[in-house]
């Protein structure tokens, strides 16, 4: 087994590993400070923060020869018998000098800088900087200019790591950003008339190690230390990027990509990143309503409505349910189970699947899918289990007008208008129409029972993305007063006690439906590939 | 802590002597103190007709004010450090891009709930631009809770009210601005 020595510790690597000094040190539990290196980008070794001592061990004699000069760890491959020393007087001195050089021209505006609190320059100053500043301390503010519609550059805060420049060259292939001028006059810039406007532009803010690039959507809105981050899944398209939902007091302030090597690596698209505003939209529905004896919509408490709704559905006898592709697997399963518990032959259909344009693929393989919903495959698997096949929404609408269905439960969760007056007209003849959605729509207007639904950050459960990878997430914020998480409603209608327990439901789903079998065990943060188990099983048969 | 802890020193109550048991000498002693205070000068004031003397207004912690800069703009840069430091969570700020070219960020709204405030002075301590200060106004009254929630305009007006009597503390205390 090849091995590398880090600070005297022997770390074994596999022959296929292609690691650099920073990565191997992480395996040894040592964090080497760095600005310009990013695992998703090429190596430039320009910041000099990761300087460390390296050498080689003679495999025969075991004698170690060290290099006289410090070398950047990011550029040094960790091969068999390589030796890394990450902490010595010489290295500490070098790091302190780098910090000092970066801070000479850095504006002392941390109090108004949005990055403060998650800034590498701040962190490394405390960890590796000198105790005293030798240059003059004069408070000054940073010049700023827009790079595009989404990103503002604070010119003087930049440490010229060029991560953002490399991102636009290597990941998006659009090359909007560049380094202008030379030496101490170096600045990040765009050419006039060619702003930073690609669909992944928000990522440059995430990879910026300092406060030079600011996200216009988040700028000035909240200090980072007030926010709590929750692991989530972006529901903007069927890619299902892993994200962090960052909230404070039940208000989402930003979404950040969460590293997931199987799906989105370190990135996410702007559409997903800024696609959370509907959660806090003014016109979001709150408060359940039902039609009273005169056929007029009246407010009603959910606890009072539940027995009445249950009785109405049982009275109607012949049921149908539309399972939105925005539902989690658990919610879809519970809804299907509920309507089937009343009517064993209830019609089950898939909600409309929004498709917008075509899949967009970037040079590094990152894809924005045209299918703008997170869980079509998961809901389809549930439908196949209960109904044998998948009925599309259009077919369902066409069949309902002349059919014998007396009551329907329609789940929504869409960001935009998803049904028209014509669609709604098809539901006109029903005795009971339950619509569960976040926003008003023609169908909602016509409902006999209106249930305000939950947004993605409020749901508990699992999503299955385009490559059959299932990710489980917990809720990040609570829904506004008067709206209920869909899963909780189904849970209560099924007569289960207490709070909706998505993990317990997923275990039931995994035991019952072969497609979800791999999700029976603990689901890791990066998700579980549902195909792996199926492939293995078909292989053995 | 257990009773056999070596750090505990056990002290016996001293036995009372004859005078102590007689109780009269102590009664006389106590009445002497009472009598002395009856004829000595008064230290209490008849508030509110009479105003108390505040020792050093520069270190007194009364009602907050929001200072203005030389051009009469709010000095606050909306950095939220006071809100972060506040142990009572009584400061609520909404930041926005400033309308002035030389400033980046300013508070669109700055609200202090004076009823929640414990007047600890941490906000003043935390402020990097000496914008929020505690004045020596101490008789803070209001007829409703809403009235006691001070918004930006009200806090700025406290500055206008007190700026002559109490110049910005930072200069007097050798601060940076």
Report on this model:
- Chain A is an alpha+beta fold and 541 residues long.
- Chain A contains 15 helices and 26 strands.
- Chain A folds into three domains: 3-87, Roll (Ubiquitin-like (UB roll)); 135-280, Alpha-Beta Plaits (2-Layer Sandwich), CATH 3.30.70.20; 289-540, Rossmann fold.
- In chain A, α2 crosses α3 (120-128), α8 (329-342) packs parallel to α9 and α8 (329-342) runs parallel beside α13.
- Chain B has 177 residues and is α+β, with helices and mostly antiparallel strands.
- Chain B has a domain at 64-172: 2-Layer Sandwich (Alpha-Beta Plaits).
- Chains A and B meet through loops of A and β2 of B.
- The global form of chain A is elongated
Radius of gyration of chain A: 28 Å
What's the N-to-C terminus distance of chain B? 51 Å
| C-alpha end-to-end distance of chain A | 35 Å
Portion of residues within helices of chain B: 25-40%
What share of residues are in beta strands of chain B?
Answer: 5-15%
How many helices of chain B in DSSP terms? Answer: 6
Q: Segments of chain B where pLDDT lies below 50 for 5+ residues?
A: none
* Domains of chain A, number: 3
**What integer value in Å does the Rg of chain B equal?**
25 Å
| Shape label of chain B | elongated
What structural class should be given to the helix and strand makeup of chain B?
alpha+beta
Largest interface: A-B, 12 and 15 residues
Which percent range fits the helix content of chain A? 25-40%
Using DSSP, what is the number of strands of chain B? 5
CATH first level of the domain at 64-172 in chain B? Alpha Beta
The overall pLDDT average of chain A reads 93
How does CATH name the architecture of the domain at 64-172 in chain B?
A: 2-Layer Sandwich
Structural class of chain A: alpha+beta
Biggest pleated-sheet summary of chain A = 7 strands, mixed
